[in-house]
């Protein structure tokens, strides 16, 4: 199979998986206190597991397996590069999806960071909401200059955006 055909098949699969993920997203429900929380969906979790698995696979090859081919040195550089790239992608995705919790109730937004800091702001303090398709996230800018980035594949993001005052999306 040629590289072009493989690339087209991979692109078609990525588009299909993203479309299925968007169509099968369920709305989030309120907890006992009335707060709704953004949650990771199967696409984020599956990508996280797949990326970690690929990093482990290439790391194992680089550390323990090696290569006996004539171009083994170059192959090991590629294995190291793939190990690092998949590892960094895993860290970025894990941090972007699990390092903070975003909750909302009424016209209040609560951000709870993994290290324990909590911030509650009224929706009126949100100055701007921008969408970054390249990174796959929304960026909320607040009046005090602080920002928060939220992955657009999080479950409940549509519900949250619908509650926000009309801003630039």
Describe this structure in words.
There is one protein chain. The protein is built from four helices and seven strands. The chain is α+β, with helices and mostly antiparallel strands and 169 residues long. The protein has a four-stranded antiparallel beta sheet with strand order 1-2-3-4. It has a domain at 101-163. Helix content is 47%, strand content 22%. It has helices at residues 3-23, 42-65, 72-98, 157-163, and strands at residues 36-37, 100-105, 108-113, 118-122, 126-132, 137-142, 147-151. The chain crosses the membrane at residues 42-65, 77-95. Keywords: Membrane, Transmembrane, Transmembrane helix.
Keywords:
169 residues; alpha+beta; four-stranded antiparallel sheet; 4 helices; 7 strands
| Mean pLDDT reading | 88
The number of strands is 7
Strand content: 15-25%
Order of helices and strands: HEHHEEEEEEH
Largest sheet: 4 strands, antiparallel
**Count of helical segments?**
4
Instruction: Give the overall silhouette.
Output: elongated
The strand line-up of the biggest sheet is: 1-2-3-4
Distance between the termini: 41 Å
Percentage of residues assigned to helices: 40-55%
Rg: 20 Å
Q: List unreliable stretches of 5+ residues.
A: none
Global structural class: alpha+beta
Keywords: Membrane, Transmembrane, Transmembrane helix
Transmembrane segments: 42-65, 77-95
